[in-house]
Amino acid sequence: MNSRQRRGVILLLLSVVCALGAFAGVLSVISDVKSKVGPEVFAYQLKRDVAPYTPLSAGQFEKIEMPERWLSRNAVTDLREIQGKIAVTNLREGSLLQSDMIVDQPALQAGEQEIAIMIDAATGVAGKITPGAKVNVYATFEGQRDGDPDQSKLIVENARVIDVGRLTSLEPDDDDRTRRTTEAVPITFALTAVDAQRITYAESFADEVRLALVAPGGESDISPTDRTYELAKDK
């Protein structure tokens, strides 16, 4: 082997050594990144925009892989969670699907409509009203003219609750600065059109709206003569 051949062999060996060193460096970088990022998990993002109250299906989402440490706690990782659900707000293309973006489809029966009102936490049945419960809705009104008695009225009987929202702080209105900050809960009912009008009227014009929980498995049966109360007429 002459000197030129020896130089060629040496250069070839050096090239192999450099390549092995570079490869080892790449593996080291990859290993370091993996150790910092952690294991990866599957999640789902939207393929396109979804309008509020739209029923959800698997075809609206695509499966992606991302580091577990970057995934929020309420991210949806199993599409079985969207069965029977609807979008609660506008869902944007590319957004990561999370459990607070979806709610159960309203369980309405023929002739019913869904309506929600804010109930003062202090005047409702605090913590005892749950979806599926039935309640009587009472409202108190001031007398229409001077000298007219104040009245308490049963507005809706056996109203079916289909959802109970989160406790929310309410600030006083600009035209009612005397009202202190209070806490209220949005209660959603399934009602007929007439009962929906009654409960909307009460929320808008009554001094106060209260809920009375009906015993589970039964219905209240209040006679027409007991649906309006005046203190002066109480025996």
Question: How would you describe what is shown here?
Answer:
The protein is α+β, with helices and mostly antiparallel strands. It has two domains: 40-104, Type Iii Antifreeze Protein Isoform Hplc 12; 113-233, no CATH class. Helix content is 20%, strand content 30%.
Task: Describe how the helices and strands are arranged.
Elements: H1 3-37, E1 40-46, E2 61-67, E3 85-87, E4 102-104, E5 113-120, E6 134-141, E7 151-164, E8 168-170, E9 182-191, H2 193-205, E10 208-213, E11 228-229
Poorly predicted runs of 5 or more residues = 177-181
Structural class: alpha+beta
In terms of DSSP E residues, the strand content is 25-35%
Give the overall silhouette.
Answer: rod-shaped
Helix-strand sequence = HEEEEEEEEEHEE
**Average residue-wise pLDDT:** 79
Instruction: Tell me the major beta sheet.
Output: 7 strands, antiparallel
What percent of the residues sit in helical stretches (DSSP H or I)? Answer: 10-25%
Radius of gyration: 32 Å
Query: How many discrete domains?
Result: 2
> What's the total count of β strands?
11
* Straight-line distance between termini: 126 Å
Total helical segments: 2
